[in-house]
Amino acid sequence: MVQFRSYAASEAAAFHRVRDRFGAFSNMAAGYPVRFGGVEAPSSEALYQALRFPDLPGFQGEILSATSPILAKRHAYTRIRESRSDWEAVKVNVMRFVLRAKFGAHQSRLLPVLAETGERPIVEISHRDDFWGARPEGGRLHGRNVLGRLLMELRLELAAHPIGAPLLVAPRFARASLLGSELGPERVGDIAAEPDTGPFLL
């Protein structure tokens, strides 16, 4: 079980809304498409939600077609009871994979912001979700803050990563299937450094 943590709000690199200084770390931040396995997910949230349903490739396609991260989440929740049976056991590793794919694809935009956090704890402020985030109370942030902790893990891992060098990303969970194809290790490069070859289609 992931333990609860308490952080001093004044000492944290915290974000609540996508327009906050570190709001790009949120899965609800638009403008950070993720390409993996020949598929483009319009956001990290869309990819995360799609991976709930490895046995429903058609429904995955619907999630990936959503026009915003929040709509991708809402559409996934219309069939939430059909999530993979081991979702609670694998969801943290799914998020770990999604974050690596996102940061690998947007290194030039995201790695400098990640480095800017220094050694401060990274915390997603949430008034409702103290699993992925932490609740504010009396100048402190209380919660398991799993998203923030995964970001801190990534910060440590990528501290010496040269921006622009492809990042090896691999799912660490079984049945990592997307649109009927099993995902394997893949080198993810910076989208901003690629030549413009037109739309990348599903």
UniProtKB/TrEMBL annotation:
Domain NADAR as annotated: residue spans: 15-158
Superkingdom to which the source organism belongs: Bacteria
Reactions the enzyme catalyzes: 2,5-diamino-6-hydroxy-4-(5-phosphoribosylamino)-pyrimidine + H2O = 2,5,6-triamino-4-hydroxypyrimidine + D-ribose 5-phosphate; 5-amino-6-(5-phospho-D-ribosylamino)uracil + H2O = 5,6-diaminouracil + D-ribose 5-phosphate
Family matches, as InterPro entries: NADAR (IPR012816), YbiA-like_sf (IPR037238)
One Pfam family here: NADAR
Protein name according to UniProt: NADAR domain-containing protein
Organism of this sequence: Gemmobacter caeni
